[in-house]
Structure prediction request, 128 residues.
Amino acid sequence: MTRGSVCSGLRYNNIHSTALCSPTRAALLTGRNHHSVGFGVISEQATGFPGYNSIIPEDKATIGRMLKDNGYATAWFGKNHNTPAFAASQVGPFEKWPNGMGFEYFYGFNGGDANQWQPNLFRNPNRK
Prediction:
C-alpha cells in the first residue's frame, strides 16, 4: 500500500490460480498448487494419474479442516465443484463433500453449473 492509504487487509504474495474453477478453488482451499491436491483439471475430467484424480489427499488439509480443528465454526455456501464426479450424487460417499473436508455446514450445489430456476441444492449431504 502507498503512504496515506486507508485500505487494509490481507496481502497475498504466493497464490496459485488457474483458468478453471475447480483447480483454482482447490488451490485456495488448501493453499497448495492445484496439481499437488489432485486438481489439474475440473472434477468431471479426472483421470487416474497423479495430480489429475480430483481427490484432495487427507494429508493436504483444507482451510475448513484447519479452522474447525482450531475451534472455529465453518460453513461453505454456493458452488462446490471439488467433489469427485463418482461421489457427487445423493448416495455419496460424502468424505470429499464440504462436510468431509472440515466444513460443518454446507448449503449449495455440486458440480460446475446449476439450473437458475430450479437448482439441485443440498443442505449438508441432504437434497433440499
In short: The CA atoms of residues 63 and 128 lie 25 Å apart. The chain has one domain: 21-127. The two ends are 44 Å apart (CA to CA). The mean pLDDT is 89.
